[in-house]
Design a protein that fits this description.
Low-confidence stretches: 44-49
Structural class: mainly alpha
Distance between the termini: 75 Å
Number of domains: 2
Oligomer: single chain
Number of helices: 14
Shape: elongated
Length: 343
């Protein structure tokens, strides 16, 4: 169903219904037109107490609207060309003039749910002002944005939050201070999550490995390998593909480092050299056979290799936690072996 006239007619039906809901319900705590929030807070205005800045856990089931639900269902059944028509018609309302421009709060929410997170809010703010739209058009829009930031903040990445802050910062001072505070809180949560994997003690030992390589081998190879591993913990979602990539890189770091350390130890102590064509298991066994590692230490190193060879994370851990454990214990294993190298 991609006929433009039919699509526009159905959109207008929903908008008329929303206008009725707004006349009936207005701006009340817990609701706005057809909108309601199923948790403490709702749509508070002026000096009314609102919800917490950002909810502890994102929840996309909190904000409900009969009108938004109808429009999103309509959008979902359209083909590519129909969806273009749908979005174009909603953007026209935001641009104005339109009899439905005061319903920009609904229009923005629907476009947000279709993936248009930034441009609609910029367009709406550019075209809504208190004189031309006395029925709180801008305030209602910012109230809905506030609920989105409170409950659905995980929809935004760090770059989008920076751009959203820039858009809101164009408003007169203090006109949307609370949403700016929400963005700050979300950014802080993101930073805390990013830093949750940082262990200062582990990082000290990681740096010992890097310093050893530069001092003894005059090489930045290990530094480069570690950088490739660490960057995985700061970019995007830690999905199955990223887990596999991370474990693969940690495994390579472990084996490549052991090979180089075996060569150095053999030369220093006059031990039988490790064959250049040795398989991974033979590399680990060399340390035990030459008396460099005891049975327990060799078992630990082998266990780390096996951990990094598994295809998926254990159910008891998240993918990121599993990869972090593999990474950190591998650094510690290398520090242990480095301690056995004559200096």
């Amino acid at each position: 169903m991609n006929d433009e006239g039919v699509i526009v007619s159905k959109i207008e039906t929903v908008l008329r219904s929303e206008a009725m809901a707004y006349r009936t319900n207005g701006r009340q705590v817990g609701g706005l037109g057809s909108f309601n929030v199923n948790m403490n807070g709702g749509f508070a205005h002026s000096n009314q107490r609102g919800p917490r800045l950002v909810d502890t856990i994102p929840n996309h089931e909190v904000i409900n609207s009969r009108s938004a639900d109808a429009l999103l269902r309509l959008y979902s059944q359209l083909g590519v060309s129909g969806r273009e028509i749908f979005k174009r018609e909603l953007i026209k309302i935001l641009e104005g003039p339109s009899e439905y421009q005061n319903l920009s709060y609904l229009v923005y929410f629907v476009l947000f749910r279709t993936g248009e997170k930034l441009e609609p809010i910029r367009i709406a703010l550019d075209n809504l002002n208190a004189d031309a739209h006395p029925h709180f058009g801008r305030g209602n829009l910012l109230a809905v944005l506030g609920r989105v930031l409170t409950y659905e903040y995980d929809s935004f990445d760090s770059g989008e939050l920076i751009k959203l802050r820039e858009i809101l910062s164009t408003l007169p001072q203090h006109h949307d201070a609370q949403n700016l505070d929400r963005i700050t809180e979300i950014q802080m949560k993101m930073l805390e999550d990013e830093l949750s994997d940082v262990n200062p003690a582990i990082n000290v030992d990681r740096d010992k490995v890097v310093s050893f390589w530069q001092e003894v081998f005059g090489s930045n190879e290990v530094q480069d390998q570690i950088n490739q591993i660490e960057v995985l913990f700061t970019e995007g979602t830690f999905d199955e593909a990223k887990l596999a990539t991370c474990l693969g890189r940690v495994r390579v770091l472990l084996i490549d480092s052991l090979k180089r350390l075996a060569q150095q130890i053999a030369e220093s102590k006059g031990l039988a050299p490790l064959a250049a064509t040795s398989q991974d298991a033979e590399v680990i066994n060399w340390f035990k056979e030459q008396g460099v590692l005891g049975a327990k230490e060799k078992k630990l190193v082998r266990a780390m290799y096996d951990l990094c060879s598994d295809e998926g994370a254990h159910a008891a851990f998240s993918k990121k936690e599993y990869a972090r454990i593999a990474k950190n214990v591998t650094y510690e294993c290398l520090v242990m072996v480095i301690g056995l190298v004559p200096r």
